[in-house]
Design a protein that fits this description.
Elements (H helix, E strand, L loop, with lengths): L4 H32 L2 E18 L9 E16 L2 E5 L12 H9 L6 E7 L2 E6 L8 H26 L1
Antiparallel strand pairs: 1-2, 1-4, 2-3, 4-5
Helix pairs in contact: 1-3
Length: about 160
């Protein structure tokens, strides 16, 4: 079987679509497990916006790309479980960043230093924790699943179109 350009693009779209769907389901299940598990009171000990250079793919998806300065909200909180003191830095499972510093500062302002927070943790490993769920907000989970399904459909279409030519 000879691989033409459509087949290769279709295989890439199919693989990436399956990845997006799998990642969405993983995030949903992990969020659900943590949010249904125990929670304790915690305290924000650091909150701010930090920037770093991030390499992204170039236009058209080619490898190489350009570097962009990206800002992320950064947090640290402390909490206690069964006499052990833990620190966490995840508000949600995923990390987000943006090229606009004010956006990261606005996100960081939601959790000011000294604020009391509810910390959800993994009962079998209390060092795994988060403050809120990204997947449980619903809209993002549905959007990611639709994108994943769309990519799978595109991949199947391109694979079938590439093989009939």
């Amino acid at each position: 079987m000879e691989w033409d350009e459509k087949s290769i693009r279709g295989l890439f779209a199919l693989g990436y679509g399956v990845y997006v769907i799998g990642r969405s389901i993983y995030q949903y299940l992990t969020d659900r497990r943590l949010l249904r598990g125990p929670s304790v009171a915690g305290k924000i000990v650091y909150s701010g916006a930090e920037g770093k250079w991030d390499k992204s793919s170039g236009s058209g998806g080619e490898i190489g790309g350009n570097y962009h300065y990206m800002y992320s909200p950064v947090f640290e909180y402390r909490y206690e479980v069964s006499g052990g003191v833990y620190t966490g830095d995840r508000v949600t499972l995923g990390k987000s960043s943006c090229s606009v510093k004010s956006w990261a500062e606005k996100q960081a302002a939601k959790y000011p230093v000294g604020a009391e927070v509810e910390v959800f943790y993994d009962e079998s490993d209390p060092s795994v924790s988060m403050l809120e769920s990204a997947a449980m907000k619903g809209v993002w989970l549905v959007l990611l699943l639709l994108v994943g399904l769309g990519l799978v459909g595109l991949g199947v279409y391109l694979l079938s179109a590439g093989n009939t030519a």
